[in-house]
UniProtKB/TrEMBL annotation:
It comes from Sphingobacterium zhuxiongii. The lineage of its organism: Bacteria, Pseudomonadati, Bacteroidota, Sphingobacteriia, Sphingobacteriales. It comes from the Bacteria. The keyword Zinc does not apply. GO terms for cellular component: membrane. Residues 37-217 form the Nitric oxide reductase subunit B cytochrome c-like domain. This is Nitric-oxide reductase large subunit.
Length: 746
């Protein structure tokens, strides 16, 4: 009991201290985010852009898909360029050519090294100087930069409309003709592109680095790595090695867990099935359907990387453009994984108490209908938004918010937020009588409810930005959702649920399970909460964010280094007694979660976490490498594993189709490994080398990405994708075959 109390206090302190720091630096980000000027003027005082046009331009960018059409500050999709890196390089070249023509009467590229260096120094002094007046809120720019803006505005207008000279480039970028149909909207989006790029090169007041800490790397304007990048990268690696050693030592000293006398029969056979528990099976139908659609959209989205205007000659981009397919692909991944986990919770809560509270069945059915409305409504709204059929206000509320993983309109966000609290109520009500009774499982149930509450509450971070909130501030809150909600508290929920299942199966003692869950949660959240900052190194934040992010994101990797112990433990459980063979495949999915936790979240995650690494690879294919192997490899596999645990309990006496389960399991794992190693990893490495040598603009350019061998590497996703798709089909087939052919028995 004393040990348990210490763990509870440690958990409370970790959460309290971490969130205090996270909120404090959130306040700092509000204070030091790149300012949006009220006016951008030339040296004669002529107004080029207003602050309102910049804000409206951000909304225009969001309406066409935002982070699903290229990236801004490195965040978003990977077929089109990073618009800030692209604008910055083109602006620098235009200004250098202007200087060269004025002084030498020839293009910059024709000059000798000495003259080029001379003009580069002149450019750096001009473009890096912060000419924003804090008192008047006016940004003044010189004539050469005004001319560059005029030329670039014309360039992007041609690209986003139907200028024939951009046909091939639009195809390379998977941008349909007339992606923006209104000239006024184009002008405003150009204003936003200028402002976002201005923040990447203009030095902060009193400092020698830009608002985005010199990201993207661009030698022409002096955007190069700093000593802070090197120093904090070194700190993160040293801390990682030290903490790995300490954790391994703790693991060795803790020894093996005490031996249990495993039950002779499956304890769940004696557990009753309440009416609401039966209703969860339809949630797994939705999980299977959404998984099929999501993977199908993923194949189409990947194909846009090699045929940017359609699908094998079909002009798909005219009615289902890349921005839509990628939005739906990423959003449905969150939807089906979350549905699997939430349905598991709906099953476990009444299973613990042994009966349904009043209106529990109504609540489960109501939540199911709400889920269908949110999924369908948000997807339809996003299509209308990207197809430019909504005004900017309508788009914010019902269309496409433009932020990756939280693309759904504000109305649908609110709807989902309310739905999560309905789910929380359905979790709490059956467990209140159990808590009142006390017992060995009490602390584990409390931890379960804490994780459920966090899932409901922390999605609310997605409501903290408004329609025209500064991009740096919106990014801060977006990562609360993506990192803390998706990667953080769902991870805690999963840890508790797995421990609870093993307790119910008689494979763990409640006291040991509670201690294990608390310790795992403390270790994970110690790095996970403040590790959120590693997404914000170059998003208009102060240097302290880099220091904290580098330090604590290294701690996120520490527990993953001993993940083999977890995998071996789960494997031993599957062999411990004969009746556990019925749970072979759910346990095998937990073993695969351990593998992908190590490779996808650990190895592939850490290679992009240190500041010096991310400086060169943010926004390259090293990010989807980590994203695919961590999101599906960890959370997707876990969702399938939890679903199979529930189905095994619901259909207790049914002989499972072992063959189809085997095909599904191995196809998913081999296919995911194939797409990672045959395509995403080599493409990412090639881009990283190009970024280091030439700059981020080149690593994302059509010039590099359309080279024959690069296209070949993109095609090499096909073998892995096909094998993976077979696995998804097998899983869906198993679920429908099991649930439609068999009845649930008490």
């Amino acid at each position: 009991m004393r040990k348990e109390r210490k763990l509870w206090w440690s958990f409370i302190l970790v959460v309290a201290i971490s969130f205090s720091v996270l909120l404090y630096y959130g306040y700092e980000i509000y204070q030091v985010s790149p300012p949006v000027p009220e006016q951008v003027v030339d040296t004669q005082g002529n107004v080029l852009f207003t602050g309102q046009e910049i804000k409206d331009g951000q909304n225009v960018w969001q309406s066409i898909g935002g982070q699903e059409v290229g990236t801004i500050w490195g965040h978003g999709a990977y077929v089109a360029p990073d618009w800030t890196a692209d604008w910055l390089h083109r602006e620098a070249e235009h200004m250098l050519n202007s200087y060269s023509q004025s002084e030498f009467q020839k293009n910059y590229s024709s000059l000798n090294d000495e003259d080029q260096a001379k003009l580069q120094i002149r450019l750096k002094k001009s473009i890096r100087k912060n000419t924003f007046n804090e008192q008047t809120k006016i940004l003044t720019i010189d004539t050469d930069r005004v001319n560059a803006i005029t030329a670039l505005s014309s360039y992007y207008t041609g690209l986003f409309t139907d200028d024939p000279q951009f046909d091939q480039l639009r195809k390379d970028y998977a941008i349909p003709k007339n992606a923006i149909k209104d000239a006024d909207r184009l002008q405003k989006m150009n204003a936003f592109f200028f402002w976002a790029t201005w923040a990447t090169v203009t030095e902060r007041p009193g400092e020698s680095v830009s608002y985005t800490h010199n990201w993207p790397n661009e030698k022409l304007v002096g955007n190069e790595m700093t000593m802070d990048l090197l120093a904090w990268s070194g700190v993160s690696i040293i801390l990682l090695i030290f903490c790995v050693g300490a954790l391994v030592l703790w693991q060795v000293k803790s020894g093996e867990e005490e031996e249990l006398l495993y039950p002779a029969q499956d304890p769940l056979l004696r557990q009753g099935i309440t009416p609401s528990m039966r209703l969860t099976k339809k949630y797994f139908w939705i999980v299977s359907l959404l998984m099929l659609v999501q993977v199908g959209l993923g194949i189409v989205t990947a194909h846009y990387g090699v045929e940017g205007d359609g699908l094998y000659g079909i002009p798909l981009d005219q009615f289902l453009p890349y921005a839509v397919t990628r939005t739906w692909h990423t959003q449905l991944a969150i939807f089906w994984i979350a549905t699997a986990w939430l349905a598991t919770g709906l099953y476990i809560a009444p299973a613990v108490g042994g009966k349904d509270p009043k209106f529990q069945c109504f609540g489960v059915n109501f939540l199911f209908i709400a889920l269908l409305i949110i999924v369908a409504g948000s997807m339809i709204g996003q299509w209308f938004g990207v197809m430019q059929k909504l005004d900017l206000v309508q788009n914010f509320w019902f269309g496409h918010q433009g932020y990756e993983y939280v693309d759904l309109g504000r109305f649908w966000q609110l709807f989902l937020f309310v739905g999560l609290f309905v789910w929380l109520a359905l979790m709490v009500r059956p467990l209140i009588p159990v808590l009142k009774q006390g017992g060995a499982e009490k602390n584990l149930i409390i931890m379960f409810l804490i994780s459920c509450s966090a899932i409901a509450l922390f999605y609310g971070a997605g409501l903290m930005w408004g329609r025209q909130t500064n991009l740096a501030i919106a990014e801060y809150w977006r990562w609360w959702v993506v990192h803390l909600w998706v990667e953080g508290f769902f991870e805690v929920f999963a840890t508790v649920v797995m421990a609870f299942l093993f307790v119910r199966l008689g494979l763990l003692k409640p006291k040991a399970a509670t201690a294990s869950v608390l310790f795992s949660t403390i270790i994970f959240l110690s790095g996970g909460i403040l590790g959120t900052f590693h997404h914000l190194y170059f998003s208009g934040t102060p240097t302290a964010v880099m220091a904290l992010g580098a330090t604590f994101s290294a701690l996120e990797v520490v527990p993953l280094t001993i993940i083999g112990f977890e995998a071996y433990h789960n494997y031993k459980l599957s062999k411990s007694t004969k009746w556990l063979q019925d749970y072979k495949w759910p346990i095998y999915y937990l073993i695969s979660v351990a593998f992908w936790n190590f490779l996808g979240a650990g190895v592939f995650g850490f290679i992009i976490n240190p500041p010096i690494a991310l400086y060169y690879v943010q926004g390259l294919n090293t990010t989807p490498l980590h994203g695919h192997t961590a999101l599906f490899g960890v959370y997707g596999m876990l969702g399938i594993g939890l679903m199979l645990f529930v189905l095994r309990s619901l259909y207790r006496e049914v002989q499972w189709n072992e063959r189809i389960l085997k095909i599904g399991f191995w196809s998913l794992n081999i296919g995911l490994l194939g797409m990672a190693l045959l395509s995403l990893l080599p493409v990412g490495i090639w881009q990283a080398i190009a970024s280091i040598e030439h700059g981020m603009w080149y690593a994302r350019s059509a010039e590099l990405m359309q080279q024959p061998f690069m296209v070949f590497l993109k095609w090499m996703r096909t073998p892995g994708d096909v094998v993976f798709a077979i696995g998804v089909l097998a899983c869906a087939w198993f679920v429908f075959d099991l649930t439609l052919k068999n009845k649930i028995k008490n």
